[in-house]
């Protein structure tokens, strides 16, 4: 009798699991909805947010490192105070001081700021004001005429920046064997590099995805690809959920 009870209970559990699984598979899942909010200074909030077509975009002036700020950085590096490492340790208890000193020395004596300026200015930089904050992005169009141009947004993660994609951009914007090329848009996450940080709390992945969705719409892309790594991957996934008609699934 005891075994019969166990068997009946097991069968009922299996039937219940199948029922719940079938119900879950056939229950439509509503995609998340990103709300349109003002993220700039509250005193500058308009009565209503601008339409996509009214999002202001300006080309940035060539990137140039200011001499007084470089001098300040040099002073800070020169006068840095290092802590004493524990004996017979490497990275078990934090940064390795010997390696840190090498990095600081390279940054102070060998890093070529003017050379880096030229590299950063190889591509055009823009600022789009979206929902009250300034979003920076790199925009690189195909270098030659091709049969088809495919828009793609590349989203960096943490700790990172748009510079992660600098070596691959020329490969994407050049002509492929199939006679197509990519138009590349690399935004900076809010608060990173040249992008402004929000002026209030509550910014999340979904809202960042909404910023970038609006940017792609403002640039005139009704269908595009998006790729991201680390936090950029989370943003890319969110974009595919809130902009299902535009983010390509192919």
From TrEMBL:
GO terms for molecular function: epoxide hydrolase activity. Residues 62-165 form the Epoxide hydrolase N-terminal domain. It comes from the Eukaryota. GO terms for biological process: epoxide metabolic process. The keyword Cell membrane does not apply. InterPro entries: AB_hydrolase_fold (IPR029058), Epox_hydrolase-like (IPR000639), Epoxide_hydro_N (IPR010497). Keywords: Aromatic hydrocarbons catabolism, Hydrolase. PANTHER family: EPOXIDE HYDROLASE (PTHR21661:SF35), EPOXIDE HYDROLASE 1-RELATED (PTHR21661). Belongs to the peptidase S33 family. This is Epoxide hydrolase 1-like. It comes from Paramuricea clavata.
């Amino acid at each position: 009798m005891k075994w019969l009870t166990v068997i009946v209970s097991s069968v009922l559990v299996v039937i219940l699991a199948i029922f719940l699984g079938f119900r879950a598979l056939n229950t439509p899942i509503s995609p998340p909805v990103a709300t349109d909010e003002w993220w700039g200074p509250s005193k500058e909030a308009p009565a209503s947010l601008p339409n996509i077509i009214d999002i202001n975009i300006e080309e940035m002036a060539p990137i140039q490192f200011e001499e007084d700020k470089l001098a300040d950085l040099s002073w800070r590096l020169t006068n840095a105070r290092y802590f004493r490492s524990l004996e017979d340790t490497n990275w078990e208890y934090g940064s390795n001081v010997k390696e840190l000193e090498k990095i600081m020395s390279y940054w102070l004596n060998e890093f070529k700021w003017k050379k880096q300026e030229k590299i950063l200015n190889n591509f055009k930089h823009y600022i789009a004001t979206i929902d009250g904050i300034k979003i920076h992005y790199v925009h690189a169009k195909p270098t030659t005429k091709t049969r088809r141009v495919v828009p793609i947004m590349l989203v960096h993660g943490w700790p990172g920046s748009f510079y992660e994609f600098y070596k691959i951009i020329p490969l994407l914007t050049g002509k492929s064997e199939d006679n197509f090329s990519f138009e590349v848009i690399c935004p900076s996450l809010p608060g990173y590099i040249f992008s402004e940080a929000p002026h209030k709390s509550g910014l999340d992945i979904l809202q960042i995805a909404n910023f970038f969705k609006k940017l792609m719409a403002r640039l005139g892309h009704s269908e595009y690809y998006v790729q991201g790594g680390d936090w950029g991957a989370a943003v890319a996934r969110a974009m595919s959920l809130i902009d299902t008609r535009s983010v390509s699934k192919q």
